[in-house]
Amino acid sequence: MDNHSGVGVIDKTAAILGALEKGPATLAELVSTTHLARPTVHRLALALEHHHLVGRDTTGAFILGRRFSELAATVGEDRLVSAALPVLTTLRDRTGESSQLYRPHGDQRICIAAVDRPVGLRDSIPVGTTMTMAAGSAAKVLLAWEEPARMHQALAHATFTAADLDSVRASGYAESAGEREAGVSSVSAPVWGTGGTVIAAVSISGPIERLTSHPAGAHAAAVTDAARQLSDVLRRTEH
Questions:
Q1: I need a surface site. Which of 48, 100, 118, 134 has the fewest CB within 10 A?
Q2: What are the residues facing 205 on neighbouring strands?
Q3: Would the pTM of this model clear 0.90, i.e. be above it?
């Protein structure tokens, strides 16, 4: 395959991204793999990092950035929503609470599917609503497995801490009460994509009077089951 398009900077950028497909790499390793000059690799890698096409792992090595997962999520959103709706409906019926599906959207999160509680007091989130990543159980889930740089940036303005995210990773779910909105409780769990990354969060939400200030006690099992089921459906329909 001819790797030369005739546009030098694009070819060099593609070479760097191709090298990172194989896993994390230091600057020296990128130079060795791409056979490009060190200043060129350094300049392009920093530019790619600025646009979130390249990130860093906990050791400082370069990795593919979060922008790729965001673009992939957008491309696969129709399939994700189609798969999610029956799962969210079952979750709503099982818990009696409104259910939602969120995915990352830049520095926020967006509701891409929702099934409301049919009667009574409920937390209704219209599809397309963007929300903060600084509060709420879905924000915790979407950040808990994020790349360190983005996680720490979000934590600077969050109502939760790094220790809270440690607990989310350990338990496999998150809960909140009055974080995003006064009087609202929620429980969320991660949806895993085929690349081993968290691509979305399944949630239920409702009034704190009904869900209590610790809604995970009654509903964590149902929410994590729904998130696991959706992850399994996506894996089966990948090809």
A1: 118
A2: 98, 186
A3: no
